[in-house]
Specification:
The complex is a heterodimer of chains A (526) and B (116). Chain A has 526 residues and is an alpha+beta fold. Chain A is built from 15 helices and 19 strands. In chain A, the strands form four sheets. In chain A, strands 3-2-1-6-5-4 form a six-stranded antiparallel sheet, with helices on both faces. In chain A, a hairpin with a 7-residue loop joins β2 and β3. In chain A, α2 runs antiparallel to α5 and α5 runs antiparallel to α6. The termini of chain A are far apart. In chain B, strands 1-2-3-4-5 form a five-stranded mixed sheet, sandwiched between helices. In chain B, α1 packs parallel to α2. The radius of gyration of chain B is 13 Å and the shape is globular. The chains are: A alpha+beta (526), B alpha/beta (116). At the A-B interface, α1 and α2 of A face α2 and α3 of B.
Chain lengths: 526, 116
């Protein structure tokens, strides 16, 4: 009797130990949930926890993807197949998700996934558990026999059920968490993109000078993405050509201007008003790349149009840095968004330029000249620098106009304006002062420098000629130069000093440069 | 886990001796399986696993040891565990591991038995 009791006691003790062991496994699953590691590593730990708790030799976890209805073996231990995929149909999913359906089955009694289980027949699987949380199918868990092909006992089947439920919850948590993480990463990327764009747009939004604007745009794009070479072109509708505005990287093959009809790439951009991509070696290209286009744009590049409310203004052309291995979709998306901002900024700058420049001579207008000259004088005064003003008047213009007509007069004005435009530096300001009178504002220039510039321009005009309707016209101009603060203290007296000097040139034989006297010499004269 | 699992191994005649270091409770324990498979392929099928430095073995560890047992059974070899803590011994017994692997108090005893 006592022996029997001790037998029973021993059995009970064994039972208690077994339960304790299962409890430990449950607590380990809890620990696993709190660990920071990859999803696959956690799945593998869960599988081992389960196999070790049941004393089973092999097993695997299949995961179900709801949108594709695909089931794939995500993690396995000692199974014949390391990877395995199959699809479930909607009805089967419904049956499996049914709340009342049992979770754990003997493989031989399980009526679903016949084909799949057939493919694993070599593993002699013992049990299968349907992993689900709140009627949502997550996947399956299969386990083999214990050592010596001994099947699980009914008690162990119920352990399997309990553990499966816990594993379902754990996997579901992982999945939700990783979805959340992915969403967070995407959100971070978006925030980063928006901030890059914001910075880039801010750079360009307040710039009204076209040249400066497109220079900035080029460098802003190089902030957005890694580019090796790039250029911006503005479309000149009147001449049906594109003018090179700014570029980055090697520019040896870049012409200042490209005729629309010479370039398929330009035509494509202008017709489509959409961005397109060339990639060397790709079979499908938007058009055949001609030699000229290849020389200008390269073999692999992206073209993004600069548009404003549907109006085609120009384009941005970019070659990805070799190290970057082409543009990503993100790069192209960002550049496109940036190009939209650029379109508005270019239009603004163009409108502004139209407002301040004379349509015929492309020189700045009198109104703008006054405003800029005032600014420049203030700046020169603040930094104690000098500033020169050159007034120019075409000699015998009235006579020319009267004898040959207004058309010739206009041509002469355009001709002289072009010479002036070529003569100036970036920060100089060429102005159509009125009638046949022009002005040049030269910041950071003293009398010696200004007279040299005036003399150079005078010679250029003198040495050039203009042919209108078969008649060759030799042109000359007279110049007056004044300098702030040497000759005058304010704008009006500066203009007046230059005017007086110009008048002196006119009075003393024309086609010459006269420097206004300095304040000191004037005082001495008095 | 607090400490990384590691192991050292040594072949003494036809016996492979594996000494584990650290808890057998995470995937690091798969190393035991790998080392055993490697040697079983070379027909070294008598294996002694010294668990002195692995006081804690959970079900992950058990699952891996079951895999080892299975492989040794298939190649008709023999397995011994040594230096088991009382708790681990109870667990091994309960999970039926000791039906397939003999426990020894000391590593030398097991090696001597396999060599002799």
């Amino acid at each position: 009797m006592s022996e029997q009791m001790s037998d029973l006691e021993q059995k009970m003790q064994q039972q208690v130990l077994r339960y304790e062991y299962v409890l430990e496994a449950l607590s380990d699953i809890g620990d696993e949930l709190c660990r920071v590691s990859s999803f696959d590593a956690q799945l593998k730990s869960l599988l081992h926890l389960l196999l070790g708790t049941l004393g089973v030799r092999k097993g695997g976890i299949f995961l179900f993807e709801n949108y594709s209805k695909k089931v794939s073996l995500r993690c396995s231990w000692k199974l014949v197949h390391k990877t395995y995929d199959f699809e479930l149909d909607q009805d089967e999913v419904k049956l499996l998700e049914d709340e009342s359906a049992e979770i754990t089955h003997r493989v031989k009694d399980f009526s679903h996934l016949k084909n799949c289980l057939q493919d694993f027949s070599e593993d002699n699987l013992d049990c299968i558990s349907v992993l689900k949380v709140r009627e949502k199918l997550i996947g399956f868990l299969v386990v083999g026999h214990k050592l010596k092909e001994v099947p699980l006992t009914d008690k162990e089947m119920s352990f399997l059920k309990t553990l499966s439920r816990n594993i379902s919850v754990a996997i579901n948590n992982f999945l939700l968490l990783s979805e959340l993480r992915e969403a967070n990463v995407r959100l971070d990327e978006k925030i980063q993109e928006v901030s890059i764009l914001y910075q880039a747009s801010q750079m360009i939004s307040s710039e009204l000078q076209l040249q400066a604007l497109l220079d900035m745009a080029m460098s802003a794009i190089s902030e957005i993405t890694d580019i090796e070479r790039g250029s911006t072109w503005l479309y000149d509708e009147e001449h049906r050509s594109f003018n090179l505005m700014s570029h980055l990287g090697d520019a040896t093959e870049l012409p200042d201007s490209l005729a629309l009809e010479d370039s398929d790439i330009l035509q494509l951009a202008q017709e489509r008003k959409e961005s397109f991509e060339y990639e060397q070696g790709k079979t499908e290209q938007p058009a055949i790349l001609k030699r000229l286009d290849e020389k200008v744009f390269g073999r692999s590049f992206v073209v993004v149009p600069i548009l404003n409310q549907g109006e085609f203004l120009g384009l941005v052309h970019l070659c990805a840095a070799e190290s970057a291995n082409g543009f990503t979709n993100r790069d192209i998306r960002l550049i496109k968004v940036f190009a939209v901002q650029l379109g508005a900024a270019v239009k603004n700058a163009q409108l502004y330029e139209q407002a301040i420049t004379d349509g015929m001579t492309k020189l700045y207008l009198h109104r703008y000249f006054k405003q800029r000259l005032l600014d420049e004088i203030k700046r020169a005064a603040r930094f104690k620098r000098s500033l020169a003003l050159i007034m120019v008047d075409i000699d015998h213009f009235k006579c020319l106009n009267d004898n040959y007509g207004h058309q010739t007069g206009d041509d002469v004005l355009r001709h002289v304006a072009a010479i002036l435009r070529r003569a100036v530096r970036t920060h100089d300001l060429p102005v159509r002062y009125g009638g046949e009178e022009f002005a040049l504002v030269l910041p950071e220039t003293d009398m010696t420098g200004a007279v040299a510039v005036a003399e150079r321009v005078r010679r250029s005009i003198e040495n050039d000629y203009l042919e209108v309707a078969g008649v060759v016209h030799k042109i000359s101009a007279s110049f007056g130069v004044s300098v702030f603060p040497d000759c005058a203290d304010d704008m009006d007296s500066l203009i007046k000093a230059a005017d007086v000097a110009l008048y002196w040139s006119k009075e003393h034989g024309r086609n010459q440069v006269t420097a206004a006297p300095s304040k000191i010499s004037r005082e001495a004269d008095l | 886990m607090s400490e990384e699992f590691s192991l050292t191994h040594q072949v003494d005649g036809n016996v492979l001796i594996i000494r584990t270091n650290g808890y057998l409770n995470d995937l690091g324990a798969e190393q035991v399986d790998e080392i055993c498979s490697e040697h079983l392929e070379k027909s070294i099928n008598k294996i002694v696993i010294n668990l002195e430095q692995s006081p804690l073995i959970n079900s992950i560890g058990i699952s891996i040891l079951i895999g080892v047992i299975e492989a040794i059974e298939e190649s008709e070899g023999a397995l011994a565990f040594t230096n088991l803590t009382p708790t681990n011994r109870k667990t091994f017994e309960m999970m039926g591991l000791l039906q397939f692997a003999q426990p020894f108090d000391k590593e030398e005893e097991a090696v001597a038995k396999f060599k002799g």
